[in-house]
Design brief:
Blueprint (H helix, E strand, L loop, with lengths): L2 E4 L4 E4 L7 E6 L10 H19 L3 E8 L15 H9 L3 H18 L7 E4 L4 H13 L3 E4 L2 E4 L15 H6 L15 E6 L17 E3 L1 H13 L3 E5 L5 H16 L4 E5 L4 E3 L2 E2 L10 H6 L4 H9 L7 E3 L1 H20 L9 H12 L4 H13 L5 H15 L13 H15 L3 H13 L2 E6 L2 E6 L3
Parallel strand pairs: 3-4, 3-10, 4-5, 10-11, 12-14
Antiparallel strand pairs: 1-2, 6-7, 7-8, 8-9, 12-13, 15-16
Helix pairs in contact: 2-3, 4-6, 4-7, 6-7, 9-10, 11-12, 14-15
The structure holds zinc ion.
């Protein structure tokens, strides 16, 4: 029995699917105007864990994820430039080139982190007609109105507005900035469709019944999730920063249009901190997966690191923590690879404990500790141990099955190569220093006739 925290009710709830064993899962995908950073990696890894736990529990998941390639403005108040157009201007490329490039990088990174591919990936720019249809419905039902710069949703017509984020219309009005369009009925009213600025031609714009322009960011996710998952579905995921205004507005416009409850469970991993700090431009700490690989660290070490944190606690990424995760991961690989591959069966006792941790609101830190208990348990025979670890890996996603022998981390490999160069130059002092560094990482180096032989310390 899976229990999961629901942002909407602010409670851990027993998960009850709409349709028996079939689950609709929607993930707010990236806005593809820049490189995705570790904050994204954390968020999408936690959503991946959620999906894997559902599947491990025996559910059949239909996973849909969008790509936002238009309409996400630099300000949440529907003002400012489109992030895509701004990036294209700065990088002197077309918006379409920018979208293609960063989408490609994003999916490469997903693969490196071993995130399961969504069953449907949908681009906002491919669904303009669905959005127009939804906006038309909202206008017809009286939930939307037209002003000089676009079509807006009238939040006062939807009394539940603010329920997800805990905002009230009064609070939102008091906190609103003054430069907001005075034609708006309420400062929290949000754009469904924006007209292209007068006299300017956007690279991405479409003809609508109300004028040439582009969709608002929120309407994209409503139109696409309804198209692929139906008017009501089970789980919606996104970053903590998506709660308001994005998800709050998705609920309002979807429920206003369909008259049905939009989503039953809202899943939001908390923000990631970097070395104790919030990610920010001034601190230049928007690290990417490429930064990690540059240091000779495997992206799966990052995945392992993220599994040691709970999605609802604020996780603090540190380079020391990542190095330790890399060592732990390779120790796990080594332990798995040493086990006899003879037949075995999944240990029921351990599986029950593992499941209990997962189903308690995805308690991955606990699940990881159970993995290590199992590794160290001498009473379990090797065949069963291996079989059980591989079974757990359906959730962990660390590719344990692919490990056949002791794997040397890329960082250590680099050091070995470096040491060989020093040895050829007969610079014994430098060679020895590198050997000590390798030892510190948990590997012992012996020189043999066939070349250096490496073994792991601390089995
Ligand atoms: Zn979204």
């Amino acid at each position: 029995m899976l229990k999961i925290y629901n942002t909407l009710t602010r409670k851990k709830e027993v998960f009850k699917p709409i349709k028996n064993k079939k689950i609709g899962l929607y993930t707010c995908g990236p806005t593809v105007y820049d490189y995705d950073h570790l904050g994204h990696a954390w968020n999408y890894t936690q959503a991946d864990v959620l999906r894997r736990v559902l599947e491990y529990d025996g559910y059949k998941v239909k996973h849909v994820m969008n790509i936002t390639d238009v309409g996400h403005l630099t300000s949440d108040a529907d003002e400012g430039e489109d992030k895509m157009e701004k990036s294209a201007r700065e990088k002197k490329k077309t918006v379409w080139e920018i979208a293609d490039y960063f989408t490609k990088i994003y999916f490469q990174n997903r693969q490196k982190l071993n995130l399961l591919e969504p069953h449907i990936v949908c681009k906002a720019t491919d669904h303009i007609s669905e959005m127009i249809k939804l906006i038309r419905k909202l206008l017809k039902k009286g939930y939307a109105y037209k002003i000089n710069d676009g079509i807006y949703f009238d939040v006062k017509k939807f009394p539940k507005y603010g329920r997800l984020s805990g905002n009230t219309l009064r609070k939102l009005k008091a906190g609103a900035r003054i430069e907001i369009n005075p034609q708006k009925h309420h400062p929290a009213d949000f754009a469904l469709w924006k007209f292209s600025p007068k006299g300017a031609k956007r690279q991405m714009e479409w003809l609508s019944p109300w004028g040439v322009g582009f969709p608002g960011w929120h309407i994209e996710c409503s139109a696409m999730s309804i198209k692929y998952l139906g008017e009501s579905f089970d789980i919606h995921t996104g970053g903590e920063d998506n709660i308001f205004p994005h998800h709050e507005s998705e609920i309002a416009q979807s429920e206003a249009a369909t008259g049905k409850k939009f989503v039953n469970y809202w899943f939001h991993p908390r923000f990631l901190k970097i070395e104790g700090e919030k990610m920010s431009k001034s601190l230049k700490n928007f690290y990417t997966l490429a930064d990690i690989e540059k240091r000779g660290i495997s992206p799966l070490a990052l995945r392992y690191l993220f599994l040691t944190g709970h999605y609802r606690s604020q996780f603090n990424f540190t380079w020391d923590g990542l190095n330790a995760a890399q060592s732990a991961l390779y120790k796990l690989y080594e332990n798995t690879s040493l086990l006899k591959t003879s037949s075995g069966k999944v240990d029921k006792n351990y599986k029950a404990k593992f499941l209990q941790a997962l189903n308690d609101d995805l308690n991955m830190p606990k699940a990881i500790s159970i993995v290590w208990q199992l590794v160290k348990d001498k009473k379990i025979n090797e065949g069963d141990k291996r079989k059980t670890l591989l079974d757990f890996d359906k959730v962990l996603g660390l590719n344990l099955a692919k490990i056949k022998k002791v794997i040397i981390p890329p960082r250590v490999k680099k050091l070995i190569a470096q040491r060989e160069i020093f040895r050829k130059r007969q610079n014994w002092k430098a060679a020895d220093e590198v050997r000590i560094e390798i030892q510190k990482l948990g590997y012992r180096l012996e020189d043999t006739k066939e070349g250096p032989r490496i073994t792991a310390i601390n089995r």
